[in-house]
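Exercise (ungraded).
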Amino acid sequence: MDATLENKRWQDTVIRAEENASYMAGDEDFIDDRKISELLSSRHLPDGARIRDIIQKSRSIQTLLPQEAADLIAVRDPGLWEEIFSAAADIKRAVYDNRVVTFAPLYCSNLCVNNCRYCGFRKDNGAVQRRMLSMDQIRSETEILAGMIGHKRLIAVYGEHPSTGAEYIAESMRTIYGVNIPVRRGSGQIRRVNVNAAPMSVSDYRIVKDAGIGTYQVFQETYHRQTYRNAHPAGTLKADFRWRLYALHRAMEAGIDDVAIGALFGLYDWRFEVMGMLAHARDLERVFGIGPHTVSVPRIEPAVNTTYGQHSKYRVSDDDFMKLIAVLRLSIPYAGLIVTCREQPEMIRRVIPMCTQRDASARIGIGAYSDAAAAQQERKQQFILGDTRSLDEVIRELAAMGYITSFCTAGYRCGRTGKNIMTLLRTGKEGCFCKLNAILTFQEWLEDFASEQTRAIGKEIIDREIQEVRARASTDFTPSIIERLLEYHSRIKNGERDLCF
Ligand code: SAM
Ligand code: SF4
């Protein structure tokens, strides 16, 4: 059959609108544009007492109501914003402790049937070279990430195309997990593969679930229907707003219990997008009792041969970026919050106190970690990166700022996912596991990958963290836990790996 016809036939089979039906109220979905706009325009200069009450609610790790988030957004007083930023950082520490988790993206394919007007991968963009990695190439990429840089978590990223559907995604995940490569003292391996890929049907989600998916991430891009229509040309798969809106519901139905939301900031008013993300989190909570595992806040970046959104009045300023992250931190206080290398280092430094994860040493060219020619092509890829520093440099900077980098993936492998982890997060107990496992996994990384300079500052951070655990002996950590921590820590220094709580 002619490839175009075959492609068209495949596209006709992808969307199964009936799979959304059980989550909708008749013909209504959970985004009510009019209501969101009304809420945003009806809140005027909330007073300090009201804002402090809302902050208090967030501090008790309760999801905010839409009108509470709208009140935060309506604040004008710079002093009150400072209180909001500081509460956002406190909440991050209370839920996730003093750690930042790092990961790297692994772009597996840029073949795409869609035409998203902001994205370098859109099918009509002739300026981008198309490439889909073979399993051998995925292995080579992983060997660099896990064997030379020292990552333990990846997010595998895919365009939407019949050649890279659920089977390809599952096979690439198995390939990534299969890498085990000797390093200085231990071995390099990826312990958690997260996925960012187009919405799928429940049966396809089961295929990726069986391959051991970590978190499944899909960004709505914009929750504003008219903007969504403008950015995603009619007749493409991505033009179906609701297929995307309920992607995470279907993933949960298939048993993927860690799902991640996001919006592409700059397409429409950031205030509306924040309200949309909160509505999304609340609907997942309503249906499944669990909200999103993480929240992402990509800002639109320039891409080759792509001008859409670059001159938009909705581009988000750095100050507004701080605000939107703080409002999300307070609105969905249990969720992880991810900032990426799309941002410049200076911006990341500003927001990191409110965030839980960042990527580092990221390459977004297809094959760009292991193939010099692909790295050369990188500027012609999906978008342009703001922070191109190595993981070692990033970790050194985080340490200088007082943060411990965590490579922990233990929670997931010990069943702390979905509902279990929600309870632990809401009660602050997960933060205790985070602290112990951050110490152990950071020590592993220092032993196996760090430069001399980073190892020295890393050691100071670990000593300080251990002291803190000891100081919290009467409240959070029992003597036997402390003893076990010290034992594991010295075993890791002696070459053992993968010891965790
Ligand atoms: N193709 C899948 C999809 O669209 O869901 C997943 C991969 S796509 C490469 C991942 C995300 O990159 C998109 O959801 C979008 O938010 C983001 N993205 C696309 N173009 C971008 C740009 N110019 N700047 C920043 N982020 C962009
Ligand atoms: Fe394709 Fe995703 Fe880019 Fe849209 S955002 S063009 S679906 S890769």
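Further reading is listed at the end of the chapter. For now, observe: The CA atoms of residues 241 and 302 lie 24 Å apart. The chain has 21 helices and eleven strands.
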